[in-house]
């Protein structure tokens, strides 16, 4: 069979290089490897040449980067001061995107394949135009299109009972950036969510579960004497209340190390301000180095934005930390926490989390058992073989 994979996170198909550009690509690369090993043909579309597979290497993957570059060139050629007739409220940016998609679908062609899989996180206008062009072209050819919604951007925020903020007033950016006709066609995309109980959407009807892949080949040795007690890696978007609740454990509790863009969004978080909370803030960590940071830590506490927590959305960090030998401690207020956390590591309060981390740091056998059981749980739930079977079950379901 023939499959197309589209990634705007970067061009590399090498696990380490691609991860440095976009951690969510880690969901795709193991699938590409297994597909090629089984003799399937893979087309890899990215916005730059691959650093691992060259365009001339036809034995594993046919890499293509000129398509996305061409679409972006068309976007730059689009009129910048026009809007849709009769509607002064439509933004100029929306007209540029719709104009780009209309013209690019006529100028960019794709091979005959069985299904297309898109990894997409950035909802900027240029990337919306690229993804929309590719998806529309395949859909018009009768090709099923699957989209990894790693950041849960492709639905109404009100689906989760959330209100307030600019993003609560409209559905996903397709409707904001495309013509009504184009947006209607894109409703046929299959959205892949990283949670078991996918809530219904007011826009998309094809919603499926596809959990982040746990790759046991990435497992590191569990350190007997980690340098740090608690580590968190992730950026500051809708997480700050949870961060102050679960990581600000006080000077008498374990010191916590947080890496991300927190200081950019909260400049008041000076070292003097954070000292009473025993919190240390560091810069963003390249995704390729997350395992090394987690490997030096006893535990990480699973926190998530409200719209993640309400549906039990699981990020790739849970898999990465477990593979690195770091214990996962999860607040039980996170929906479906017991589905992806070893039960003894579920906690009901910050005080309970503090005590659990203390025990894990002083009892190596307990921590080792915790990590091993967590690994077994994730392997059975979303290991490579499980994900591969899920992949083909979706192909079979939507290939008509």
Short description:
The chain is α/β, with parallel strands linked by helices and 400 residues long. The chain is 39% helix and 14% strand. It folds into two domains: 2-213 and 384-398, Rossmann fold (3-Layer(aba) Sandwich), CATH 3.40.50; 216-382, Rossmann fold (3-Layer(aba) Sandwich), CATH 3.40.50.
Topology:
Blueprint: E1 2-7, H1 15-21, H2 29-37, E2 41-46, E3 61-64, H3 66-77, H4 92-107, E4 115-119, H5 125-140, E5 145-148, H6 173-177, H7 180-185, E6 190-193, E7 207-209, E8 228-233, H8 240-246, E9 256-259, H9 262-265, H10 271-274, E10 279-282, H11 290-295, E11 297-301, H12 306-309, H13 316-323, E12 327-331, H14 337-340, E13 346-347, H15 350-362, H16 364-382, H17 384-398
Helix pairs in contact: 3-4, 3-5, 4-5, 15-16, 16-17
Describe the model.
The radius of gyration is 22 Å and the shape is globular. The chain has two domains: 2-213 and 384-398, Rossmann fold; 216-382, Glycogen Phosphorylase B (Rossmann fold). A seven-stranded parallel beta sheet has the order 3-2-1-4-5-6-7, sandwiched between helices. It has a six-stranded parallel beta sheet with strand order 10-9-8-11-12-13, with helices on both faces. 39% of the residues lie in helices and 14% in strands. The chain has helices spanning 15-21, 29-37, 66-77, 92-107, 125-140, 173-177, 180-185, 240-246, 262-265, 271-274, 290-295, 306-309, 316-323, 337-340, 350-362, 364-382, 384-398; strands at residues 2-7, 41-46, 61-64, 115-119, 145-148, 190-193, 207-209, 228-233, 256-259, 279-282, 297-301, 327-331, 346-347. It has 17 helices and 13 strands.
